[in-house]
Each structure stands twice: as C-alpha cells, then as structure tokens.
Write a structure and sequence with these properties.
Helix content is about 45%, strand content about 15%. With about 325 residues, it is of the alpha/beta class. Strand 2, helix 2 and strand 3 form a beta-alpha-beta unit. The structure holds 2-amino-3-ketobutyric acid (AKB).
Length: about 325
C-alpha cells in the first residue's frame, strides 16, 4: 500500500523557490516533517533554524537515500536544478544535475514506494517553431538550450514513471519567478528580480535583455500556491502529469521599468543584451494554462502592478530604504 504525504524532502531548498517553498511546507505540514537539503550553499539562518537541514548531492544517489531512510521520506519536492544561463556555461554539469539527479529521485521513489514526487519543469522546454503567443499545452518541444533539453527529458521521464510503474509524479512549467526573499541564480529571467534591487539601491539598472523581450513571469506567492496546489490535487482527476503550463503575467523589461518608475520616478534603465538574449528569444511571450485551470483549479492572484508594488514595499524594508 502506498504511503501518505507525511515526511517531505525538499531538494534545492537553498535556492530561490526552494527556500520559500520549504518555509510554506513547514507551516502547513509541521516543521519537523519537512526535511530541507542543499548541495553546497549554506542555508540562511531562517531556513536552518526552522527545521531539519542536510547537505546532499542529488547526482550521488547514496547521499539522497541516506536521508530518505533516516526520515522515512514519502514525498519529494525536487527543486534542485541548474538553470538556463548557467547551463549554457556548463552544459555537462547541467545534464548531470538535472538528469542524473531527477532519475535518482524517481528511482528512490520506486524503491521506497513514495506517495508523491513533484518535479518542476520550465518554459525552457520550448524553442523555435513554437507559437509564441498563448503557447498551447500540446505543441512542439525543441529547446535550443541544455537546460531546456534536460527539462523536456525530465517531463518525459516523469510521465514514463507514471505510466510504466504507477508512481505518482507531477510537474509544472515555471515561467520566470520574481521574489524578494532569495536571489535567483543562473537564469535568463533573473533580470526581473535584479532590476528591483538595483532600482532601490542605485536608481538605475543595466538590463541584459532587449527592452522589447516579452516573457511569461510569476510572483513567488503564486508560484508556491501553484506548486502545492498541484501536489495536493486528486491524482484521478489529472489527465496530464509532469508538464502543466502555468501562467500569471507577461511583460517586457521596458514595461517592468515603466511600472517601477511609478514608485521610483528617478529610476532609469539601459539595455546591453548579452548571450542570454538568444535564450530569451527562443522562449514564448505568453502561455495557455487552461489544462492546469481545468484539472486542478489553477488561478493566479498577482499581476504586474500588484507584484511591483509588493516587491518594492518588501525590498525597501529589507534594504532599510524609504
Ligand atoms: C531560467 O531563466 O532559466 C528560469 C526558468 C524560466 O526556468 N528562471
């Protein structure tokens, strides 16, 4: 008989999404029931003091298995990944972490008859040939980045484990995630977080994408809500498993800068596109998430205006600025 969701392992818990997801899961399921893990980066005091934390390496199955056995883990939120920009600088590491790490988690899921595994995917699964506006759930997946290649493979692997072994695996395609708690690292959408820090600290920002680069984005509270809502959805109602499109808002750097200017009128933005422009150009402008809305009730709450206001409020308080 399958276990229930009682002991949760979060990989990549020191990262941008993992750090906030862990805190929310601890709130909901009890701090001692959520085991946070990371590879090298030291956790914040807040994270370390809020419940168990261990260092593991997802590419070395024995280091993960030790924690699975120690805590009798039945659920994994597998957040550890190398993102798009870092993946282009080190494609082999990207493959190793994202593919070896994912299959290790899936194998442990089978071995220990886990109740549920959540493996996020990304808008990076798309590439040339895809409709750029309102990109459908079912469409061609031909990414041109190593990160995208690993995310397509991760979705297919997850779906394979569902079909072949009956393992409960779920995943959603994150857009760029914007947050004020932990900085993102190594992504193409990172500009949409950096811009807020620089606007508050220096009143100016040099953007590494062109001003008209439209990308799908989401505010962290919506990201956490989407992830946990999918994890808690009734499995029998899911027609898809590891590849749900989820959308919240889309904007260009120029539109974000204009929104920031409403709160910080002196703010100035300049543009100096680098290698990340090509990555961004291969991703959609906006996505159709009707499958997520129908199958598990996805409904975003934050838009560009409300997210910008909230980001500035929190970051001003954090940086001690008025
Ligand atoms: C990245 O930019 O690589 C990530 C993503 C969209 O998955 N934020």
């Amino acid at each position: 008989m399958k276990k229930e969701m009682k002991k949760i392992l979060v990989t990549g818990s020191v990262g941008q999404i993992g750090s906030e997801l862990t805190m929310e899961l601890r709130q909901r399921y009890g701090a001692e029931n959520v085991i946070a893990t990371g590879r090298k980066t030291q956790p914040s005091e807040k994270l370390r003091n809020s419940g168990p934390f261990h260092f593991i390496d997802v590419t070395k199955i024995e280091t993960v298995e030790e924690i699975v056995r120690k805590y009798d883990i039945d659920t994994v939120y597998h957040m550890a990944a190398i993102l798009s920009a870092k993946g282009e600088q080190n494609p082999q590491l990207c493959w190793k972490v994202n593919i070896d790490g994912t299959i290790n988690i899936l194998e442990l899921g089978l071995r220990y008859e886990m109740a549920r595994i959540i493996i996020p995917s990304s808008i990076a699964v798309w590439g040339p040939g895809v409709p750029l506006d309102n990109t459908p759930q079912e469409t061609v997946l031909k990414p041109t980045t190593m990160y995208g290649v690993t995310k397509v493979a991760g979705e297919l692997l997850g779906d394979y484990y569902v079909r072949r072994f009956g393992l409960d695996v779920r995943g959603l395609r994150y857009p760029g995630i914007i947050s004020h708690e932990t900085l993102p690292g190594g992504g193409t959408t990172d500009y949409a977080v950096e811009i807020f820090y620089e606007a508050i600290d220096k009143r100016r920002y040099k953007c590494f994408l062109r001003e008209d680069t439209m990308l799908p984005m989401m505010y962290m509270p919506d990201c956490i809500e989407a992830t946990i809502r999918l994890a808690e959805a009734d499995f029998s109602k899911l027609k898809h498993h590891c590849d749900f499109n989820v959308a919240a808002m889309s904007f260009t750097p120029a539109q974000l800068a204009a929104e920031i200017k409403k709160h910080i009128p002196e703010f100035e933005i300049t543009y100096e596109p680098d290698f990340r422009q090509e990555i961004a150009d291969s991703w959609p402008n906006s996505i159709d998430d009707s499958a997520a809305r129908e199958e598990w009730g996805w409904q975003p709450k934050w838009d560009l205006a409300s997210m910008t206001e909230d980001m500035i409020k929190h970051l001003k308080a954090k940086r001690g600025r008025s």
